[in-house]
Amino acid sequence: MTEDTAMPNEERLVTETGVDARIAQIVEPVIQSLDMRLVRVRSSGQNGLTVQIMAERNDGTMSVEDCEAVSRAISPVLDVEDPVEKAYHLEISSPGIDRPLVRKSDFVRWEGHLARCDASVLINGRKRFRGYIRNVTDTGFSVERDQPAYGEENVAVIPFSALAEAKLVLTDELIRESLRADKAAKAAAAANENNAGATQEDSGNDDSA
């Protein structure tokens, strides 16, 4: 995994359609105002209608408190804009360990890990691939397939322009990397808070003669 690849307002490669697209258009600026990024909006018919909004901080972390902050910020905006015609349950979540990959920086960050990728066009005679993310560039990436059938190409090159969906596959290595990254992000956040507190204390003790 490559560190420090995220850009705050980086556009998503994978976006929604229909009412989910309308919801995304409404909530994305609000989420960005909280120094976070929208990952995905998805509506489902489970337990009535559920609107799930995935978000994350720019470092890829997302705490329970962050989810609560997003919910408080976007709920009144959705009430005013009213993009959904019937009652629904709003669910705010982190992307999770086996997360969707929706930005170029996601592919850079998780290069070398196992993923499932769907293309919008046929590539090497198929649209669905499972394999390791390799050779990420500005225009696309390669999938080194972990279980190619006999006679099939081992590597597929997928342009970002043809990407329909991508998601990490849960593996022991991915879990270790995710836990390590989360620990490092929390340590960095704690250090920043301590530095900010020390600066405020120094300012308060700076008495002029």
Main β-sheet, spatial strand arrangement: 7-6-5-4-8
Annotated CATH architecture of the domain at 18-93: 2-Layer Sandwich
Q: State the secondary-structure class.
A: alpha+beta
CATH topology of the domain at 18-93: GMP Synthetase, Chain A, domain 3
**SS elements, strand count:** 8
Helicity range? 25-40%
Shape: globular
Mean pLDDT over the full residue set: 90
- Say which CATH homologous superfamily of the domain at 18-93 is assigned: RimP-like superfamily, N-terminal
Strand content: 25-35%
- Low-confidence segments, given as residue ranges, are none
| Element-level helix/strand string | HEEHEHEEEEEH
- What does the oligomeric state look like here? single chain
Distance between the termini: 53 Å
CATH class of the domain at 18-93 equals: Alpha Beta
Largest beta-sheet details: 5 strands, antiparallel
Q: How many helices?
A: 4
Q: Over the alpha carbons, how many angstroms does the gyration radius reach?
A: 20 Å
Helix-strand blueprint:
Blueprint: H1 18-33, E1 36-44, E2 50-57, H2 64-81, E3 89-93, H3 104-109, E4 114-123, E5 126-134, E6 140-145, E7 155-159, E8 163-168, H4 172-204
Parallel strand pairs: 2-3
Antiparallel strand pairs: 1-2, 4-5, 4-8, 5-6, 6-7
Helix pairs in contact: 1-2
Polypeptide structure, described:
With 209 residues, the chain is α+β, with helices and mostly antiparallel strands. The protein has a domain at 18-93: GMP Synthetase, Chain A, domain 3 (2-Layer Sandwich), CATH 3.30.300. Helix content is 35%, strand content 28%. The chain contains 4 helices and 8 strands; from the N terminus they run H-E-E-H-E-H-E-E-E-E-E-H. A 5-stranded antiparallel β-sheet has the order 7-6-5-4-8, with no helix packed on it. A 3-stranded mixed β-sheet has the order 1-2-3, covered by helices on one side. Strand 5 and strand 6 form a beta hairpin. Helix 1 (18-33) packs across helix 2 (64-81). The termini are far apart. 22% of the residues are buried.
